[in-house]
Amino acid sequence: MRITDARVVVCSPGRNYVTLVVETEDGLTGVGDATLNGRELAVASYLRDHVCPLLVGRDARRIEDTWQYLYRGAYWRRGPVTMTAIAAVDVALWDLLGQVAGMPVHQLLGGAARDGVMVYGHASGTTLDDLSRDVEAHLAQGYKAIRVQAAVPGIDKTYGVPPGDGLLYEPASGEVPQEDVWETTAYLDFAPTLLAHVRAEFGYGLHVLHDVHHRLTPIEAGRLGRALEPYRPFWIEDPTPAEDQAAFRLIRSHTTTPLAVGEVFNSIWDCQQLITERLIDYIRTSVTHAGGITHLRRIFALADLYGVRSGSHGPGDLSPVAMAAALHVDLSIPNFGIQEYMGHRSPAEEVFRTSYSFADGFMHPGEEPGLGVTFDEEAAARYPYAPKYLPVNRRLDGSMHDW
Ligand code: CS2
Ligand code: MG
Protein backbone atom coordinates (compact mmCIF):
# COMPACT_ATOMS: atom_id res chain seq x y z
CA MET A 1 0.00 0.00 0.00
CA ARG A 2 2.52 2.56 -1.22
CA ILE A 3 1.87 6.29 -1.07
CA THR A 4 1.89 7.73 -4.58
CA ASP A 5 1.04 11.37 -3.88
CA ALA A 6 0.75 13.79 -0.99
CA ARG A 7 -0.48 17.35 -1.53
CA VAL A 8 -1.62 20.31 0.52
CA VAL A 9 -4.78 22.31 -0.17
CA VAL A 10 -5.32 25.66 1.54
CA CYS A 11 -8.87 26.96 1.21
CA SER A 12 -11.28 29.29 2.94
CA PRO A 13 -14.89 28.04 2.90
CA GLY A 14 -16.06 30.37 5.68
CA ARG A 15 -12.62 30.37 7.26
CA ASN A 16 -9.11 29.16 6.45
CA TYR A 17 -8.33 25.44 6.46
CA VAL A 18 -5.21 23.52 5.49
CA THR A 19 -5.86 19.97 4.30
CA LEU A 20 -3.35 17.23 3.49
CA VAL A 21 -4.45 14.74 0.84
CA VAL A 22 -2.56 11.43 0.64
CA GLU A 23 -3.12 8.98 -2.23
CA THR A 24 -2.03 5.35 -2.49
CA GLU A 25 -1.28 2.99 -5.37
CA ASP A 26 -4.62 1.25 -4.66
CA GLY A 27 -6.43 4.47 -5.61
CA LEU A 28 -7.43 5.37 -2.04
CA THR A 29 -7.41 8.92 -0.70
CA GLY A 30 -6.83 9.83 2.96
CA VAL A 31 -7.19 13.31 4.46
CA GLY A 32 -5.68 15.10 7.44
CA ASP A 33 -6.30 18.54 8.93
CA ALA A 34 -3.24 20.83 9.19
CA THR A 35 -4.92 24.08 10.20
CA LEU A 36 -3.08 26.38 12.62
CA ASN A 37 -5.24 29.48 12.94
CA GLY A 38 -3.39 32.61 11.81
CA ARG A 39 -0.24 30.65 10.88
CA GLU A 40 -1.75 28.43 8.15
CA LEU A 41 0.92 28.89 5.50
CA ALA A 42 3.77 27.93 7.84
CA VAL A 43 2.29 24.43 8.23
CA ALA A 44 1.41 24.26 4.52
CA SER A 45 5.05 24.97 3.66
CA TYR A 46 6.40 22.53 6.30
CA LEU A 47 4.29 19.83 4.68
CA ARG A 48 4.79 20.78 1.03
CA ASP A 49 8.48 21.53 1.20
CA HIS A 50 9.71 19.06 3.81
CA VAL A 51 7.22 16.25 4.44
CA CYS A 52 5.25 15.41 1.27
CA PRO A 53 8.40 14.47 -0.70
CA LEU A 54 9.34 12.01 2.08
CA LEU A 55 5.95 10.32 2.05
CA VAL A 56 5.90 9.19 -1.56
CA GLY A 57 6.90 5.52 -1.77
CA ARG A 58 6.32 4.78 1.95
CA ASP A 59 3.94 2.04 3.10
CA ALA A 60 0.80 3.87 4.26
CA ARG A 61 0.06 1.15 6.84
CA ARG A 62 3.19 1.89 8.90
CA ILE A 63 1.55 4.63 10.94
CA GLU A 64 3.71 4.46 14.07
CA ASP A 65 6.91 4.22 12.06
CA THR A 66 5.94 7.21 9.92
CA TRP A 67 5.12 9.22 13.06
CA GLN A 68 8.51 8.41 14.60
CA TYR A 69 10.28 9.03 11.29
CA LEU A 70 8.82 12.54 11.03
CA TYR A 71 9.21 13.37 14.75
CA ARG A 72 12.68 12.00 15.44
CA GLY A 73 13.80 12.46 11.87
CA ALA A 74 13.31 16.24 11.93
CA TYR A 75 15.84 16.48 14.77
CA TRP A 76 13.99 19.71 15.78
CA ARG A 77 11.14 18.55 17.97
CA ARG A 78 7.70 19.64 19.07
CA GLY A 79 6.22 23.07 18.43
CA PRO A 80 2.83 23.85 16.89
CA VAL A 81 3.98 23.93 13.26
CA THR A 82 5.88 20.62 13.36
CA MET A 83 3.25 18.80 15.41
CA THR A 84 0.35 20.05 13.28
CA ALA A 85 2.14 18.86 10.15
CA ILE A 86 2.84 15.43 11.68
CA ALA A 87 -0.79 15.28 12.85
CA ALA A 88 -2.10 15.80 9.33
CA VAL A 89 0.00 12.89 8.02
CA ASP A 90 -1.00 10.67 10.93
CA VAL A 91 -4.73 11.34 10.54
CA ALA A 92 -4.58 10.78 6.76
CA LEU A 93 -2.86 7.40 7.36
CA TRP A 94 -5.51 6.32 9.90
CA ASP A 95 -8.16 7.34 7.36
CA LEU A 96 -6.47 5.19 4.70
CA LEU A 97 -6.06 2.21 7.05
CA GLY A 98 -9.76 2.33 7.93
CA GLN A 99 -10.69 2.41 4.26
CA VAL A 100 -8.46 -0.58 3.48
CA ALA A 101 -9.85 -2.52 6.45
CA GLY A 102 -13.42 -1.50 5.58
CA MET A 103 -13.84 -0.20 9.13
CA PRO A 104 -14.46 3.18 10.75
CA VAL A 105 -11.35 4.46 12.53
CA HIS A 106 -12.91 3.93 15.98
CA GLN A 107 -13.01 0.18 15.28
CA LEU A 108 -9.28 0.22 14.62
CA LEU A 109 -8.80 2.01 17.96
CA GLY A 110 -10.54 -0.75 19.91
CA GLY A 111 -14.17 -0.10 19.09
CA ALA A 112 -16.87 2.04 20.67
CA ALA A 113 -16.51 2.32 24.44
CA ARG A 114 -19.75 4.36 24.64
CA ASP A 115 -22.88 4.95 22.56
CA GLY A 116 -22.16 8.60 21.86
CA VAL A 117 -19.85 11.49 22.65
CA MET A 118 -21.19 14.26 24.88
CA VAL A 119 -20.39 17.61 23.31
CA TYR A 120 -20.64 21.16 24.56
CA GLY A 121 -21.77 24.08 22.46
CA HIS A 122 -21.00 27.78 22.82
CA ALA A 123 -23.59 30.24 24.14
CA SER A 124 -22.75 33.91 24.45
CA GLY A 125 -24.32 37.34 24.61
CA THR A 126 -23.59 41.01 24.66
CA THR A 127 -26.00 41.12 27.64
CA LEU A 128 -27.02 38.45 30.14
CA ASP A 129 -30.48 38.39 28.53
CA ASP A 130 -28.93 37.69 25.12
CA LEU A 131 -26.91 34.93 26.74
CA SER A 132 -30.07 33.41 28.21
CA ARG A 133 -31.69 33.33 24.77
CA ASP A 134 -28.64 31.56 23.36
CA VAL A 135 -28.59 29.02 26.22
CA GLU A 136 -32.31 28.38 25.58
CA ALA A 137 -31.61 27.80 21.88
CA HIS A 138 -28.89 25.28 22.75
CA LEU A 139 -31.13 23.48 25.23
CA ALA A 140 -33.85 23.31 22.57
CA GLN A 141 -31.34 21.54 20.29
CA GLY A 142 -30.69 18.98 23.02
CA TYR A 143 -27.31 20.14 24.37
CA LYS A 144 -26.53 18.76 27.83
CA ALA A 145 -23.44 20.94 28.25
CA ILE A 146 -23.01 24.59 27.30
CA ARG A 147 -20.09 27.00 27.51
CA VAL A 148 -21.23 30.45 28.63
CA GLN A 149 -19.47 33.74 27.87
CA ALA A 150 -20.88 37.27 28.08
CA ALA A 151 -19.59 40.77 27.44
CA VAL A 152 -17.83 42.16 30.52
CA PRO A 153 -19.28 45.58 31.39
CA GLY A 154 -16.55 48.19 30.96
CA ILE A 155 -14.51 46.12 28.48
CA ASP A 156 -14.90 47.00 24.83
CA LYS A 157 -14.66 43.56 23.21
CA THR A 158 -14.88 40.40 25.29
CA TYR A 159 -13.42 37.05 24.17
CA GLY A 160 -16.09 34.62 22.97
CA VAL A 161 -18.82 37.22 22.47
CA PRO A 162 -20.17 38.37 19.08
CA PRO A 163 -19.89 42.12 18.39
CA GLY A 164 -23.70 42.54 18.39
CA ASP A 165 -27.05 40.77 18.60
CA GLY A 166 -27.59 38.25 15.80
CA LEU A 167 -23.93 38.47 14.66
CA LEU A 168 -21.52 35.53 14.60
CA TYR A 169 -18.52 35.37 16.93
CA GLU A 170 -15.42 35.32 14.72
CA PRO A 171 -12.12 36.26 16.32
CA ALA A 172 -9.88 35.94 13.23
CA SER A 173 -10.00 38.90 10.85
CA GLY A 174 -7.97 41.30 8.78
CA GLU A 175 -4.45 41.54 7.40
CA VAL A 176 -3.16 42.60 10.80
CA PRO A 177 -4.50 41.49 14.19
CA GLN A 178 -7.31 43.48 15.71
CA GLU A 179 -6.34 45.09 19.05
CA ASP A 180 -8.56 44.40 22.06
CA VAL A 181 -8.36 45.90 25.53
CA TRP A 182 -8.22 43.74 28.66
CA GLU A 183 -8.98 44.68 32.25
CA THR A 184 -8.68 41.91 34.82
CA THR A 185 -10.55 43.58 37.70
CA ALA A 186 -13.72 44.12 35.66
CA TYR A 187 -13.65 40.50 34.48
CA LEU A 188 -13.05 39.04 37.94
CA ASP A 189 -15.93 41.07 39.37
CA PHE A 190 -18.27 40.02 36.56
CA ALA A 191 -17.57 36.29 36.11
CA PRO A 192 -19.42 35.13 39.28
CA THR A 193 -22.45 37.26 38.25
CA LEU A 194 -22.41 35.54 34.86
CA LEU A 195 -22.42 32.02 36.32
CA ALA A 196 -24.96 33.00 39.03
CA HIS A 197 -27.27 34.33 36.30
CA VAL A 198 -27.12 31.09 34.30
CA ARG A 199 -27.81 28.92 37.37
CA ALA A 200 -30.67 31.21 38.51
CA GLU A 201 -32.28 31.03 35.07
CA PHE A 202 -31.64 27.40 34.14
CA GLY A 203 -30.92 25.56 37.39
CA TYR A 204 -28.36 22.84 37.94
CA GLY A 205 -29.63 20.25 35.43
CA LEU A 206 -27.17 21.21 32.69
CA HIS A 207 -23.38 21.27 32.54
CA VAL A 208 -22.05 24.84 32.45
CA LEU A 209 -18.53 25.54 31.20
CA HIS A 210 -16.54 28.77 31.04
CA ASP A 211 -13.33 29.76 29.19
CA VAL A 212 -10.96 32.24 30.86
CA HIS A 213 -8.65 32.16 27.81
CA HIS A 214 -5.26 32.37 29.55
CA ARG A 215 -5.84 35.79 31.13
CA LEU A 216 -5.32 35.52 34.88
CA THR A 217 -2.40 35.15 37.26
CA PRO A 218 -2.39 31.97 39.39
CA ILE A 219 -3.70 33.75 42.50
CA GLU A 220 -6.43 35.51 40.48
CA ALA A 221 -7.39 32.14 39.02
CA GLY A 222 -7.56 30.67 42.53
CA ARG A 223 -9.88 33.48 43.57
CA LEU A 224 -12.08 32.99 40.51
CA GLY A 225 -12.30 29.22 41.00
CA ARG A 226 -13.32 29.69 44.60
CA ALA A 227 -15.91 32.37 43.75
CA LEU A 228 -17.49 30.08 41.14
CA GLU A 229 -17.74 27.00 43.38
CA PRO A 230 -21.41 27.64 44.41
CA TYR A 231 -22.39 27.57 40.70
CA ARG A 232 -20.64 24.22 40.15
CA PRO A 233 -19.11 24.78 36.72
CA PHE A 234 -18.23 21.60 34.80
CA TRP A 235 -14.86 23.31 34.35
CA ILE A 236 -13.07 26.58 34.01
CA GLU A 237 -10.75 26.52 31.04
CA ASP A 238 -7.26 27.96 30.58
CA PRO A 239 -7.31 30.13 33.73
CA THR A 240 -3.64 31.10 33.27
CA PRO A 241 -1.11 30.89 30.41
CA ALA A 242 -0.64 27.13 30.48
CA GLU A 243 3.04 26.83 29.66
CA ASP A 244 3.73 27.49 33.36
CA GLN A 245 2.63 24.06 34.55
CA ALA A 246 3.81 24.56 38.15
CA ALA A 247 1.47 27.56 38.49
CA PHE A 248 -1.43 25.13 38.67
CA ARG A 249 -0.24 23.94 42.07
CA LEU A 250 -1.16 27.36 43.41
CA ILE A 251 -4.56 27.43 41.68
CA ARG A 252 -5.32 23.90 42.89
CA SER A 253 -4.51 24.80 46.49
CA HIS A 254 -7.28 27.44 46.47
CA THR A 255 -10.22 25.84 44.68
CA THR A 256 -12.09 22.62 43.94
CA THR A 257 -13.53 24.02 40.69
CA PRO A 258 -12.45 21.56 37.94
CA LEU A 259 -9.72 22.84 35.63
CA ALA A 260 -9.33 22.22 31.90
CA VAL A 261 -6.16 23.09 30.00
CA GLY A 262 -4.31 22.26 26.83
CA GLU A 263 -5.76 23.60 23.56
CA VAL A 264 -2.44 25.29 22.76
CA PHE A 265 -0.31 22.27 23.71
CA ASN A 266 1.29 20.17 21.04
CA SER A 267 2.90 17.26 22.84
CA ILE A 268 2.72 15.01 25.86
CA TRP A 269 5.69 16.92 27.31
CA ASP A 270 3.59 20.09 27.57
CA CYS A 271 1.15 18.44 29.95
CA GLN A 272 3.27 15.79 31.66
CA GLN A 273 3.50 17.69 34.96
CA LEU A 274 -0.12 18.85 34.87
CA ILE A 275 -1.24 15.24 34.48
CA THR A 276 1.19 13.36 36.69
CA GLU A 277 0.78 15.83 39.57
CA ARG A 278 -3.02 15.76 39.08
CA LEU A 279 -3.11 19.54 38.68
CA ILE A 280 -5.93 19.47 36.13
CA ASP A 281 -9.15 17.51 35.60
CA TYR A 282 -9.49 17.68 31.80
CA ILE A 283 -6.80 17.70 29.13
CA ARG A 284 -7.87 19.69 26.06
CA THR A 285 -5.24 18.69 23.49
CA SER A 286 -6.62 18.21 19.98
CA VAL A 287 -5.91 15.72 17.21
CA THR A 288 -4.67 18.47 14.90
CA HIS A 289 -2.37 20.41 17.20
CA ALA A 290 -1.01 17.52 19.27
CA GLY A 291 0.48 15.17 16.73
CA GLY A 292 -2.55 13.32 15.39
CA ILE A 293 -4.50 10.31 16.60
CA THR A 294 -1.31 8.41 17.47
CA HIS A 295 0.07 11.05 19.84
CA LEU A 296 -3.29 12.19 21.25
CA ARG A 297 -4.04 8.62 22.30
CA ARG A 298 -0.69 8.53 24.12
CA ILE A 299 -1.59 11.74 26.00
CA PHE A 300 -5.03 10.41 26.93
CA ALA A 301 -3.53 7.09 28.06
CA LEU A 302 -1.16 8.94 30.40
CA ALA A 303 -4.08 11.06 31.63
CA ASP A 304 -6.11 7.93 32.33
CA LEU A 305 -3.44 6.68 34.75
CA TYR A 306 -3.92 9.85 36.82
CA GLY A 307 -7.70 10.18 36.70
CA VAL A 308 -7.62 13.04 34.18
CA ARG A 309 -10.31 12.98 31.48
CA SER A 310 -10.25 14.17 27.88
CA GLY A 311 -11.96 17.37 26.77
CA SER A 312 -10.60 18.02 23.29
CA HIS A 313 -10.56 21.42 21.69
CA GLY A 314 -13.11 21.50 18.86
CA PRO A 315 -13.33 25.04 17.49
CA GLY A 316 -14.56 26.07 14.05
CA ASP A 317 -10.96 26.90 13.18
CA LEU A 318 -10.16 23.18 13.02
CA SER A 319 -11.63 21.60 9.90
CA PRO A 320 -14.40 18.95 9.85
CA VAL A 321 -11.60 16.41 9.26
CA ALA A 322 -10.32 17.20 12.77
CA MET A 323 -13.83 16.95 14.22
CA ALA A 324 -14.33 13.51 12.66
CA ALA A 325 -10.94 12.28 13.92
CA ALA A 326 -11.69 13.63 17.42
CA LEU A 327 -15.03 11.80 17.53
CA HIS A 328 -13.39 8.48 16.60
CA VAL A 329 -10.87 8.90 19.43
CA ASP A 330 -13.54 10.10 21.91
CA LEU A 331 -15.76 7.12 21.19
CA SER A 332 -13.01 4.61 21.85
CA ILE A 333 -11.01 5.79 24.90
CA PRO A 334 -11.84 4.80 28.49
CA ASN A 335 -11.33 8.25 30.02
CA PHE A 336 -13.40 10.41 27.68
CA GLY A 337 -14.77 13.51 29.43
CA ILE A 338 -16.42 15.85 26.94
CA GLN A 339 -15.82 17.17 23.41
CA GLU A 340 -16.08 20.78 22.29
CA TYR A 341 -18.29 21.28 19.24
CA MET A 342 -18.51 24.74 17.69
CA GLY A 343 -19.70 23.43 14.33
CA HIS A 344 -18.70 24.79 10.94
CA ARG A 345 -20.20 27.65 9.08
CA SER A 346 -21.35 27.51 5.51
CA PRO A 347 -19.90 26.78 2.96
CA ALA A 348 -17.53 24.38 4.80
CA GLU A 349 -20.16 21.61 4.44
CA GLU A 350 -19.89 21.92 0.66
CA VAL A 351 -16.11 21.28 0.77
CA PHE A 352 -16.01 18.67 3.58
CA ARG A 353 -18.83 16.11 3.52
CA THR A 354 -18.99 14.27 6.83
CA SER A 355 -20.71 11.19 8.23
CA TYR A 356 -20.81 12.38 11.85
CA SER A 357 -24.11 13.25 13.47
CA PHE A 358 -25.51 15.16 16.44
CA ALA A 359 -28.61 14.13 18.38
CA ASP A 360 -29.77 15.14 21.83
CA GLY A 361 -26.42 16.53 22.99
CA PHE A 362 -24.34 13.58 21.80
CA MET A 363 -22.33 13.06 18.62
CA HIS A 364 -21.30 9.95 16.74
CA PRO A 365 -18.63 9.67 14.02
CA GLY A 366 -20.70 7.29 11.88
CA GLU A 367 -19.81 3.85 10.52
CA GLU A 368 -18.23 4.70 7.17
CA PRO A 369 -14.79 3.18 6.56
CA GLY A 370 -11.95 5.47 7.63
CA LEU A 371 -12.78 8.90 9.05
CA GLY A 372 -16.01 9.25 7.08
CA VAL A 373 -15.03 12.58 5.51
CA THR A 374 -14.97 13.34 1.78
CA PHE A 375 -12.89 16.36 0.79
CA ASP A 376 -14.08 17.99 -2.45
CA GLU A 377 -10.99 19.62 -3.98
CA GLU A 378 -12.96 21.26 -6.79
CA ALA A 379 -15.27 22.90 -4.30
CA ALA A 380 -12.26 23.92 -2.18
CA ALA A 381 -10.75 25.73 -5.19
CA ARG A 382 -13.77 28.05 -5.22
CA TYR A 383 -12.78 29.42 -1.78
CA PRO A 384 -9.24 30.79 -1.92
CA TYR A 385 -7.14 31.52 1.17
CA ALA A 386 -7.07 35.04 2.56
CA PRO A 387 -4.81 35.96 5.49
CA LYS A 388 -6.60 36.39 8.82
CA TYR A 389 -5.24 36.86 12.31
CA LEU A 390 -6.46 36.31 15.84
CA PRO A 391 -6.71 39.50 17.91
CA VAL A 392 -4.09 40.68 20.39
CA ASN A 393 -4.82 42.10 23.85
CA ARG A 394 -3.47 45.24 25.48
CA ARG A 395 -4.07 46.39 29.02
CA LEU A 396 -5.36 49.87 29.75
CA ASP A 397 -1.78 51.20 29.93
CA GLY A 398 -1.06 49.87 26.43
CA SER A 399 1.11 46.90 27.46
CA MET A 400 0.59 43.50 25.85
CA HIS A 401 -1.52 40.88 27.62
CA ASP A 402 -2.41 37.29 26.70
CA TRP A 403 -5.38 37.10 24.34
C1 CS2 B 1 -11.23 28.71 22.23
C2 CS2 B 1 -10.84 28.77 20.80
O1 CS2 B 1 -12.69 26.98 21.67
C3 CS2 B 1 -12.03 27.48 22.55
O2 CS2 B 1 -11.99 27.06 23.69
O3 CS2 B 1 -10.28 28.94 23.18
O4 CS2 B 1 -11.93 29.32 20.12
C4 CS2 B 1 -9.58 29.55 20.44
O5 CS2 B 1 -9.71 30.90 20.76
C5 CS2 B 1 -9.35 29.39 18.97
O6 CS2 B 1 -9.36 28.05 18.61
C6 CS2 B 1 -8.06 30.04 18.54
O7 CS2 B 1 -7.82 29.75 17.20
MG1 MG C 1 -10.49 27.77 24.86
Automatic annotation (TrEMBL):
Pfam families, per database record: MR_MLE_C, MR_MLE_N
GO MF terms here are: mannonate dehydratase activity
Q: Where is the Mandelate racemase/muconate lactonizing enzyme C-terminal domain?
A: 128-258
For whether the record's keyword set contains Amino-acid biosynthesis, the answer is no
This protein's record includes keyword Disulfide bond: no
User: What are the alphabetically sorted keywords of the record?
Assistant: Lyase
Q: Which InterPro entries match?
A: D-mannonate_dehydratase-like, DgoD-like, Enolase-like_C_sf, Enolase-like_N, Enolase_C-like, Mandel_Rmase/mucon_lact_enz_CS, Mandelate_racemase_C, Mandelate_racemase_N_dom
Q: What class of enzyme is it?
A: lyase
Catalytic activity, EC: 4.2.1.8
The name on file for this protein is Mannonate dehydratase
Q: Top-down, what is the taxonomic lineage of the species of origin? A: Bacteria, Bacillati, Actinomycetota, Actinomycetes, Propionibacteriales
